[in-house]
Amino acid sequence: MTDQTNTRIPAPLYAAAGAGDLAVEQLRKLPAVVTELSERAAASLRVYNVQAGSKAAELRDKASTTDFSALRGNAASVATSFAQIAQDRALAAYTALVARGERVVGTGVVEAADVVNADIETTEEPVAIEAAPQAEPTPKPRKRAASK
Q1: What is the pLDDT of residues 48-72, one digit of tens each?
Q2: DSSP track, 40-100
Q3: Using CA atoms, how far apart are residues 16 and 105, in angstroms rounded to an integer?
């Protein structure tokens, strides 16, 4: 994995930023790739239509002479080695995404986060304001009844 950085942003967030940047880069290439693949598919289809009959007969003969029990015995060890290779590749891809994300995010965000965190730490606790006791309302003097 990557070395621990002195920032407060975790590596998975950098990996997500790197993956997003990589996705944008690949999506920009998509129209050219689609055109190339459609041309290759059309050319391959023409070639395979011609060879399909002879290839089917060849595969049928090969299947009848194959030792499937030997293949089964070998499958477990091959699967284990493929799993190890896949794990190593996944770790390398994750590390590359973290590095890419660190470049995308840049140091400006880290510096801004440090400033905000420093402001939060230095802010004083709000002083509790107590309401002043309200004085009892003074009663209004009563009007005297007019004497006759």
Answers
A1: 776 777 788 888 888 888 788 788 8
A2: HHHHHHHHHHHHHHHHHHHHHHHHHT--HHHHHHHHHHHHHHHHHHHHHHHHHHHHHHHHH
A3: 11
Considering only residues 124 and 13, tell me which one the structure prediction assigns the higher pLDDT: 13
Q: Which two tokens stand for residue 142?
A: 């009563």
90 burial type by CB count under 10 A (0-12 exposed, 13-18 middle, 19+ buried)? exposed
User: What type of residue sits at position 30?
Assistant: L
Q: Which two tokens stand for residue 13?
A: 């967030």
CA dihedral 26, 28, 31, 34 (to 10 degrees): 0
Q: Map out the domains of the chain as residue ranges.
A: 11-122
CB 13 within 8 A of CB 102: no
Residues 101/21, Cβ–Cβ less than 8 Å? yes
Instruction: Tokens for 1, please give them.
Output: 């994995």
Of residues 103, 107, 96, 104, the one with CA closest to residue 1: 96
Amino acid at 138: T
Tokens 């009959």 — which residue? 53
